[in-house]
Amino acid sequence: MILAKFSNAEWEFIQALTQSLTLRDLARKTGFSLSTAWRIFNNLYRKGAYYYIFDTRRFGLCYLAVISTYPGNGEDEWPQGTLTVRKIWGLKPYTLFSALIPCTFVSEYIKSLNADIVTVVRGLEVYWWRPDSGGSILMPGKGLMPFLSKTLEEMYFKEKCMVRLRELPNHLKAPDPIDMAILVRKLQAGPFAKPIEGVRYAASVDPLFPKVSEKTVSYHYRKHVLPGWLYNTFIPYLPITDVPLRVFYFEGREAPALARILINLPYFITALIDVNSSLLTGQAPPWMMETVYRVISSFDVKAPLCQLVMSSKSIVKFIPHLWKFLKETRKGWTWYWPKEKLKVLQKKR
Q1: For residue 349, what pLDDT is reported?
Q2: If 0-12 CB within 10 Å is exposed, 13-18 middle and 19+ buried, where does residue 39 land?
Q3: What local confidence, expressed as pLDDT, does residue 252 receive?
Q4: By the 8 A CB rule, do 233 and 131 touch?
Q5: How many Å apart are CA 3 and CA 12, to the nearest integer?
Q6: Distance of CA 144 to the CA centre of its chain
Q7: pTM (two decimals)
Q8: Hey, which end of the chain has fewer CB within 10 Å, N or C?
């Protein structure tokens, strides 16, 4: 079987990562020396990627997934906020766009794609797999496996009775570009990136970015960014030639509840939850699909696009410059829809 394999020390590190602000904090929680923590931190890059998870609503932002019919027109410019553009294969070829944009610009983003839209899933709720959720276990001598614990099984009934989803806020005060720059760097470089690195990066790529002191950056991080932090996580990746990335799109009243359960299982990556729909990405290996579909069959949902697999030969990624959505006025910063489009920075063929 193909599994993600970790040493006991690596697994302890990954579990402690979720609620650790710094590497020094993580070393203190695990009892590792700082040098050992650094070594494990660097070695794990060969097995996956680190992610910084924050409360998008607090900053007036929204993750978005858009599936369209595959245009095949060689487009290489996309709207600001686009994170990835991927070909996906199902009963038909499609394109999957993922984006992180201000809540107020969801309609503008969709229109600016100039695509034949099949479906849109807004991230009214967004989850990333986390190792301490109770749905994963590291089996000695084997690797990471799903674990349908009693706690997880109890969630079946709880999630089916979940209260109604909160809609996106229509009018939310725009944040400061310093806050956006800090978030951008955390998204790029991982949870332990220093706040000042975000401002330095923004200033290096945008000559109009405000010049501020390190003291000001520290203040913005403590007062604005840190309160919006939720957790960190590490997502293991399997060889894409052996285990393709999959997209699971569900519709129905219980689609949100199903996504909240599945994202607890290993090899799932993200879950976006909208009203009566959800979209998950993951790399579930073949031996695990029986467990996945056993869970799916417990919920009243539909999968109108059937099984979807991401192309391993067409992945376009962008660096989100979130401060581009802000414009300074006499009354302070306000939201702004930029006409400037993103050009392809990384493309695999």
Answers
A1: 39
A2: middle
A3: 94
A4: yes
A5: 18
A6: 21
A7: 0.92
A8: C
**Residue type, position 57, single letter:** R
Q: The tokens of 24 are what?
A: 């020094």
Q: What is the pLDDT of residue 134?
A: 84
3-state secondary structure the chain: CCCCCCCHHHHHHHHHHCCCCCHHHHHHHHCCCHHHHHHHHHHHHHCEEEEEEECHHHHCEEEEEEEEECCCCCCCEECCCEEEEEEEECCCEEEEEEEEEEHHHHHHHHHHCCCCEEEEEECCEEEECCCCCCCEEEECCCEEEECCCHHHHHHHHHHHCCCCCCCCCCCCCCCCHHHHHHHHHHHHHCCCCCHHHHHHHHHHHCCCCCCCCHHHHHHHHHHHHHHHEEEEEEEECCCCCCCCCEEEEEECCCHHHHHHHHCCCCCEEEEEEECCEEEEEECCCHHHHHHHHHHHCCCCCECCCCCEEEEEEEEEECCCCHHHHEEEECCEEEECCCCCCEECCEEEC
**271 Cβ neighbours under 8 A, 6+ residues apart:** 125, 126, 127, 128, 259, 260, 262, 263, 278, 279, 280
- CA-CA distance, 302 to 296, in Å (whole number)? 10
Cβ neighbors of 202 (< 8 A, separation 6 or more) are 177, 181, 184, 209, 321, 323
Q: CB within 8 A of 318, min separation 6: which ones?
A: 78, 82, 83, 84, 342, 344, 345
Predicted pLDDT of residue 348:
45
Q: What is the mean pLDDT of each run of 10 residues along the chain (349 residues)?
A: 94 96 95 96 96 95 93 71 93 94 94 93 96 90 82 63 72 89 96 96 94 95 96 95 95 93 95 96 94 90 94 81 93 90 60
Quick check: 230 and 200 in contact, CB under 8 A? no
Other Cβ atoms closer than 10 A to 16: 21
